[in-house]
Amino acid sequence: MKMKHIAALAGSMTVLAATAHAGGYVPPVVEPAPAAPIVIEQPVGDWQGGYAGATLGYAFGGKDRVGLTDSASDSLLGNIGELKLKGANAGVRAGYRWQKDRWVFGPELGFEGGDIKGDTDGSIGGTDFSAESKIKNVLALRFKTGYTVAPDTLVYGIAGVARADVDYSLNDISDDYKKTGYIVGLGVEKQLNEKWSVTGEYEYANFGKEKLDFNGLTTEASAKYNNLKVGVNFKF
């Protein structure tokens, strides 16, 4: 009997082994780990370095009311009108820029001259007066801070200090003066290639107030104007 049991058990194990061999080994299914996303760095362009350029502009919207005061009594005699400064201008500039990621910043020195002027005339107490103001030139140190909205396009803000040489006259009596003020504005620059770029800018210039004397009559000049400019830069 024992031998019969052993034989039956051996037969059963043989059948099971054959069945397992016929089906083959099925390994467990393992879910693959998700692949890390591929981040493509967007180019930011190359703006760092020195440059030089030139500008053409047109000034407008300058308002300077001409009021006359008696120097001896310091009493206001009246107003003869308003000087509206406007006119074409041209300039040269040179600067240097640093770049950190998309941010670009640096100083720029510029010199501009042209035909920015205004004149007016009127009468006070039966006496005729005529006045004229002309911006002969402006020397400015600007600081520009920008952001690259595209690899070849920079949008920037402008803030700086400027010194104007102004020719002011009343009834053909001239009293020139120099005055320090400020310039603020916005601009955009577009690269044409590795060296050349073009710019468009809006600026507001304000040179404060200056008291002038004309043979016993005084007035307070306040030169200010808006300026739209286009320009070209060459990168070193």
UniProtKB/TrEMBL annotation:
Query: What's the name of the protein?
Result: Outer membrane beta-barrel protein
Q: Which SUPFAM superfamilies match?
A: OMPA-like (SSF56925)
Give all residue intervals belonging to the Outer membrane protein beta-barrel domain.
44-236
Record's family? Belongs to the Omp25/RopB family.
Cellular localisation: Membrane
Ribosomal protein as a keyword? no
Annotated signal sequence is 1-22
PANTHER family cross-referenced by the UniProt entry: BLL7405 PROTEIN
Identify the main location. membrane
Q: Which organism is it from?
A: Paracoccus limosus
Q: Which UniProt keywords apply?
A: Membrane, Signal
The Gene Ontology CC terms held by the record are: outer membrane
